[in-house]
TrEMBL record:
<feature type="region of interest" description="Disordered">
    <location>
        <begin position="1"/>
        <end position="58"/>
    </location>
</feature>
<dbReference type="InterPro" id="IPR004842">
    <property type="entry name" value="SLC12A_fam"/>
</dbReference>
<dbReference type="GO" id="GO:0015379">
    <property type="term" value="F:potassium:chloride symporter activity"/>
</dbReference>
<keyword id="KW-0472">Membrane</keyword>
<dbReference type="Pfam" id="PF00324">
    <property type="entry name" value="AA_permease"/>
</dbReference>
<dbReference type="InterPro" id="IPR004841">
    <property type="entry name" value="AA-permease/SLC12A_dom"/>
</dbReference>
<feature type="transmembrane region" description="Helical">
    <location>
        <begin position="452"/>
        <end position="478"/>
    </location>
</feature>
<feature type="domain" description="SLC12A transporter C-terminal">
    <location>
        <begin position="823"/>
        <end position="960"/>
    </location>
</feature>
<dbReference type="GO" id="GO:0045202">
    <property type="term" value="C:synapse"/>
</dbReference>
<feature type="transmembrane region" description="Helical">
    <location>
        <begin position="609"/>
        <end position="625"/>
    </location>
</feature>
<keyword id="KW-0769">Symport</keyword>
<keyword id="KW-0406">Ion transport</keyword>
<keyword id="KW-0325">Glycoprotein</keyword>
<comment type="similarity">
    <text>Belongs to the SLC12A transporter family. K/Cl co-transporter subfamily.</text>
</comment>
<feature type="transmembrane region" description="Helical">
    <location>
        <begin position="490"/>
        <end position="516"/>
    </location>
</feature>
<dbReference type="GO" id="GO:0055075">
    <property type="term" value="P:potassium ion homeostasis"/>
</dbReference>
<feature type="compositionally biased region" description="Basic and acidic residues">
    <location>
        <begin position="23"/>
        <end position="34"/>
    </location>
</feature>
Amino acid sequence: MPTNFTVVPVEDTPISNPDYDGEIMKEEDKEEPHTAAGHYSGDDTPRETSSLISTDHDDSIYGKNMALYEDEMDSTPMVSSLLNKLANYTNITQGVVEHEEAESEDGIQRITVNGPQMGTFIGVFMPCMQNILGVILFLRLTWIVGTAGIMEALAIVFMCCSCTMLTAISMSAIATNGVVPAGGSYYMISRALGPEFGGAVGFCFYLGTTFAGSMYILGTMEIFLTYIMPNAAVFREMTEQPTGMQNDMRIYGTCCLAIMTLVVFVGVKYVNKLALVFLSCVMLSIMAIYAGVIQSAIRPPNSQVCLLGNRTLQNSRFDKCLKTEVIDNVTTTTELWKLFCKGDLGNETCDEYFKLNNLTEIQAVPGLLSGVISENMWGHYGEYRKMVGKRLQSAEQSSDNSNDTHYVFNDITTFFTLLVGIYFPSVTGIMAGSNRSGDLRDPQRSIPTGTILAIATTSIIYISCVVLFGACIEGVVLRDKYGESVKGTLVVATLAWPSSWVIVIGSFFSCCGAGLQSLTGAPRILQAIARDGIMPFLQVFGHSKSNGEPTWALLLTAAICEIGILIGSLDQVAPILSMFFLMCYLFVNLACAVQTLLRTPNWRPRFKFYHWSLSFLGMSLSLSLMFVSSWYYALVVILISGCIYKYIEYRGAEKEWGDGIRGLSLNAAQYALIKLEEAPPHTKNWRPQLLVLLKLDSDLGVKHPRLLSFTSQLKAGKGLTIVCSVLEGAYMAREADAKLSEKNIKAAMAKEKTKGFYHVVVSSNQRDGFSHLIQSAGLGGMKHNSVLIAWPANWKQAESSLSWKNFIETVRETTAAHQALLVAKNIDTFPANQDRLAEGTIDVWWIVHDGGLLMLLPFLLRQHKVWRRCKMRIFTVAQMDDNSIQMKKDLQMFLYHLRLDAKVEVVEMHAGDISAFTYEKTLVMEQRSQMLKQMQLSKTEREREIQSISDESRNSIRRKPCGQKPTQSNKFQVPTIILDEEAQLIHDRNTKSHAILNDKATPTSDRVHMTWTKEKLIGERNRVREANMTVRDIFNMKPDQTNVRRMHTAVKLNEVVVRKSQGAQLVLLNMPGPPKNTGGDENYMEFLEVLTEGLNRVLLVRGSGREVITIYS
């Protein structure tokens, strides 16, 4: 129908007139009334929300020209609107402002958003520099160079810097693959690897950042107590032991943590204001180091080290490196003498080593051109409490070590892998730029450039410092961790110019700033994890106070940080946080490698300088460094990550982030399915892959939930399980019911702990639906090989015969499809998953061999804790001509080879005469069947006759014009039927009134001629003759001999089974096949009923015809 348009000139439109606008709105309301209901969705599937899609529409935007698409506007907005949203999209600033909400006068909450301002240098490069350069550079790098030597120290630096550089490349690819909102590294990892991996790695990243705060606070306290105010120590002065220093660091570290936590709690803005000051301290300290190197080449600093023999002395208690000195021509002892000798000069009692060796004074910093680099080229590892000495210095050895406290000692046993773990925290901090992604002007450009440039710069600084330290500073001073040989001065500060206090003060404030940054960043990482909702027990930490500060997360961070401080040693905390960061870096590389190899359509990074091999190398290097640093810490961190992963998986993280692990699973599943189709499974790999056909009640709930319990007990989560059901009707009309049914089935499966897939199909009738499922359920090589259904209870009392007819057709179709069939009778009495059968037996009645499924099923059931205590018994039937003794021996040998533990019993059934009871039961069965047929035919004969004619002769219907005579042929014709009225009657199954057709129908001009073949007519005559059987004929009939023999078998076998297995917990029985002639279907149901009569729990088993169990390995 054409659409009329009215053109209104713009200049003539009274836009400014409100009355005119009101009239237009009224007219539009009259033409197109709108309801006040919410938006309608065609399905109940939740859609992923996006800040780019708005569901608020008005006619001014979409107009009436697009009325064809107006029903879909909610899910598919107009392109113009989408582009407008994209153009105006901005990130929310990550700082405090993102959480500050202002409430206007009308009560509507509005979020104040400031535009991003920071570029690459300020937003990424400088924060990364501040986090990378820190405590290890000033406190431990000189000791690492002196202990490991220049070459091995360079190897440590190269490995660690290579790891972070490869990780930065992978991170840059992920960060530039779309918009990275505030959330930084955790957001990237979780969205790339999914909620399970994301939660595990995110929590590791949080713990690493928290323990980094502990390390920085311990470094701050070490600088304060050792180099700034050593007199403030309490326990060390009392004990003179290393444990005394650790106790001091625990006390002062706890106080420092409390102050820092309070500062962060008051406001992050103070931390951000001080960040530039702290960074300036770091850069000033590094410049002082390089200036000192240049100064040492020109004029080395006047700092001396005193050696006794080849041992380094602590020179904090003496000023002169002399045993005696001459003052006014009088020889007097020095302070050093008094440390090793007692008594006056001449009557002294001295340390033997002190007597045998001379004192030597050497320069602590010989200078860049002194050639000391050759001595520091290789490592000098030592054991705990080993004295630090000069290797090339000659000395007389002594057995007297009574005055060991005056020498410089190793406080820990040193080896290469330990140094790797201690050094690695100095290269962490590469995530600082990505963590500020919400504050950047262009994150996709700034994060790769700034991060890689910062890593390159710091790597150059570290490598140059390793070489310069080894070339300028004496080896014994480098190995002196706390500077005890240079009067308690920070070792790296002895090289500084113009003063050593530049580095001492600079490193102090640098560690303070890094600690504050860690206490600021870690709670926000925890808050982001908690708000994602993937770990419910962290939900309380997602809350924040009015200004957005995550208070509860800050308190937990402080508590975990206190654990690190109570360790009391920087050298012991550093490997712990190294593990957490290495785990995080490992998964960043894994995420990039997975996305690259899968080539997902959404993987389009702007950063092009990446490759999956680089990511794989970074992942391998991270894993290697974990075990090189500390294999037991590595195992603990992997265990923590695994527990978090399984917890999130167990709780069912219903998050769909389009992650790479899901894509990897799809690719792996596709590959596995293709491989499975190459060849049928071997008998050794055969296990029941179940298709469970459920019945639903009137409320669309599961009618027999114990069927799912039995499935979980039989499968135990192994193999394939497909739970299906069928709804009658049309899909368009029952779509909502189908989804509700699937939801109910899913809930029932979760309750019964059944792992598998579920599906509900809508079909015109249940028979066709079950048939389609049997034929097409599964995919590729993952198709079901067994069907599990419940016995149709009360089939005799049912008004309709469809239930047992559908059951028999299912039996026939599974047989034709070469699939096994399991029929559970009295399913509601089967044990639940919570039950524990204390004792009892599982009895197997092995009548015929159809593949060995009967013996495999009890074995699988006994793997479950419900059936574990039940014993297995196998019964077989011997005929008159069989040797029962030999049969028992053969069966026992067969079970021995099958490795099945079961008791064997052979039951003899003699061929006796058919009893009168059996004859009478057969006769009653056939009479009942015939009477039911008579009743059904007399009730709906006409309707079924018309329906049959319609189905069989639809293609032969043709119209005849009025007055034309029918053509004679060799086929029979049925009486003519009124077309308009009777054809409607044929196709309407649910009509309540069906006219009885007779020969007196009024002829019309339009008639329908239906032709039958001769065979069809003969069959119809037999059916009519059967329907005309009188009641007297029914009671005078004689039973069919075949039915009598079958009933005899059922009765006799039932007697034996009831006698032997009435007390069994479960009876497994061979299920006889259905009759080939459909006329005996009801008799078949009666046979099965008699066969299982008097038994509580029965599982009828019909094999697929192939061997499913073997004696071979």
